[in-house]
Write a structure and sequence with these properties.
Blueprint: H1 5-23, H2 30-56, H3 62-93, H4 100-107, H5 124-146, H6 151-174, H7 179-183, H8 191-205, H9 210-234, H10 239-262, H11 275-303, H12 310-340
Helix pairs in contact: 1-2, 1-10, 1-11, 2-8, 2-10, 3-5, 3-11, 3-12, 5-6, 6-8, 8-10, 9-10, 11-12
Length: 359
């Protein structure tokens, strides 16, 4: 299977930002950028697959929707359930078990529909956003095509709906809830994924040349750096303003970078050594994301009060990172990859080179 080195690199950057935010409290805000990059990647990759599948079928049907669901759920749900069990043991030890109702909500990815409460297994909020994207996007396309709308027009209409409606809902919630809580609500954050979907659609309709891709990359990078500087300067003064800008600009700017990254050539010469680590970390990134909090805090507990020493504190973080990477590799090889290989065949088998990275 052909992979895109650039998209693998983007996924590694995303998980690195998330890890940095949880390993060093002073860098907590960079984790937001890591999650927004994950959202843009999901939209670009999965939205592209769905668009090509849509065009490959004479008529978009519920069977096409079912196959799409099965492929996504084989890829995402088993690993999530595995680490949800791990989280139960972890929270049982630390005295924070969820109620039966709350646990049932986690099983259905409904834990954060209109609430930012993430006391139990906090990282799952972003997975809920993605799962509801997988669930609703093909269904809304089906509804539009059932009215007689052309398939491309239905795809565009669905994308617009999922950018406009969550944005409006988010603005309403920002008037009634703290911005940090709104950031982790499922329905008001669905638009984050659809900027990547929009980029995938544009590339599917008329692929950009190398200069246009580079121009989009530079614009996206400039927006990201500007937003990061704005966040560092203004977060303490105007948290709502920072979050409002981040909700809109972060996934959009990352989406602009992805077409150029998709074409990024494999490193050669002296940099050839980075190929395998980037590929492996990209493959393990889902398990890393799911496991790093339980692993990290379990290691902290084992070190106990010795972590009051700066040197031991740094050592505990290194041990936690190594343990997380080792566990994630094991889970990927012996569980995640095997389950993923069991999923049904894709309805559209002819995918452009490099489009299957981290699907």
């Amino acid at each position: 299977m052909t992979r895109s080195f650039g998209l693998d690199m983007a996924r590694v950057a995303a998980i690195a930002l998330v890890l940095l935010s949880h390993f060093a409290h002073d860098f907590e805000f960079v984790g937001i950028f890591g999650v927004e990059l994950f959202f843009a990647l999901s939209g670009y990759l999965i939205g592209g697959v769905l668009y090509r599948s849509l065009l490959a079928t004479p008529r978009w049907s519920f069977e096409d929707v079912r196959v799409f669901w099965m492929r996504r759920w084989y890829r995402t749900v088993p690993n999530y359930l595995l680490f949800l069990v791990v989280a139960l043991f972890f929270h049982a030890y630390f005295g924070g078990l969820p109620t039966a109702r709350h646990l049932a909500a986690h099983l259905l990815f409904m834990q954060n529909m209109m609430s930012g409460d993430n006391a139990f297994y906090g990282v799952s909020w972003s997975l809920a956003v993605e799962e509801w994207f997988y669930l609703t996007f093909p269904l809304v396309i089906l509804a539009f095509t059932a009215t007689g709308l052309h398939k491309r027009a239905a795809f565009v209409a669905t994308t617009v709906v999922f950018i406009v409606a969550p944005s409006a809902l988010r603005e309403f919630m920002l008037m009634h809830s703290p911005a940090e809580n709104v950031r982790m609500m499922t329905l008001p954050r669905l638009d984050a994924i659809f900027y990547g979907v929009g980029a995938a659609f544009l590339m599917g309709r008329r692929p950009l040349g190398d200069r246009a891709r580079l121009a989009c990359m530079l614009v996206g990078l400039s927006l990201t750096l500007t937003l990061a500087l704005f966040a560092l300067y203004a977060l303490d003064m105007d948290g709502v303003g920072v979050y409002r800008a981040t909700f809109l600009l972060a996934p959009a700017s990352f989406a602009l970078m992805l077409p150029w990254l998709q074409r990024l050539a494999m490193p050669t010469g002296r940099l050839v050594f980075v190929r395998t680590p980037i590929k492996n970390l990209s493959l393990w990134s889902y398990s890393i994301y799911l496991s790093h909090i339980p692993v990290l805090f379990t290691v902290y507990e084992l070190f106990g009060r010795t972590r009051e020493s700066t040197a031991v504190n740094v050592l505990s973080k290194v041990v936690g990172l190594v343990a997380c990477l080792g566990l994630s590799r094991f889970v990927f090889v012996h569980f995640e990859q095997r389950i993923t290989n069991m999923r049904p065949s894709e309805r559209c088998l002819r995918l452009p080179r490099g489009s299957r990275s981290a699907l």
